Amino acid sequence: MISLCGLAVCPLNLSDYGNKFLMMACATIPCHVRASFSADVPSLPADPTSHKLPRQRQCSIPSSFSIEAHNLSFNISRHNKFVPILKNCSLQVPPGQLWMLLGPNGCGKSTLLKILAGVLHPSDGTVNVNRPNSFVFQNPDHQVVMPTVEADVAFGLGKFSLGSDEVRCRVAKALEAVGMIEYLQSPVQTLSGGQKQRVAIAGALAEACKVLLLDELTTFLDENDQMGVINAVKKCVRGPEQVAALWVTHRLEELKYADGAVYMEDGRVIMQGDIASVSHFLNRTCKFYI
Ligand SMILES: Nc1ncnc2c1ncn2[C@@H]1O[C@H](COP(=O)(O)OP(=O)(O)OP(=O)(O)O)[C@@H](O)[C@H]1O
Ligand SMILES: [Mg+2]
Question: Which UniProt keywords apply (predicted)?
């Protein structure tokens, strides 16, 4: 054990990583999950005959959106065949809003989220996502890994040169924001799935994240935990920091908590807009299966 600004954390080099979740991916995520990261699946160029791998283009023009993507494509090679996974996807999410990302299994939601998080590089297109941003996975056991809630939320702060008072203050504020302050000293293995998700979100908030990219946080949660996580995210986006959140879900009842939604099918963005318009579209086209 070593101490991070007075908080007990596990023996890891805290100075040389940029993202707790990526580091945890290497340390804790089973091989089948890790296989979806960029190191294992390089994207192919838009032109399959070209041998040059493309670089992700970060748009440098200031934008009024917290999340912005234009004409993103992502291609892979499967059995020596060129397979397009994302096709010309564009979307925008303003600051201080929660948007849902919807679509049937395999349509490319998680792939799009990973590109927005910088975990995967697109084959083509432009990405502009405010930093710092954080990607929270479906399974909280892959990311809430420290012995106590306090240590887990403090973990990501190791890369900043912060005094112990500042660390404690940030940890407390982040846990307040997600309604978990009374669990400060609790061992993480005693938490429910929803409580772990809220601790994972607190970790991102403690790092002053401007954007939360959330992949099916509530799939395995009961109604109580589901509402706890939704309320925690809503509180973040309504707060003074104007955090923007993009939330992948299959649970259509969660739409009513969002400010807007993006609907995908077969690697394409089919529809995006306010909740009334997207709900109307889904009802009209009988998209009940997502
Ligand atoms: N590492 C990978 N290697 C090969 N194909 C992949 C990989 N990751 C994703 N895919 C393929 O890309 C497509 C989109 O997958 P993705 O996980 O983004 O879908 P999704 O919309 O998140 O689905 P779900 O709702 O089931 O989570 C699928 O056809 C999937 O098989
Ligand atoms: Mg997915």
Answer: ATP-binding, Nucleotide-binding, Transport
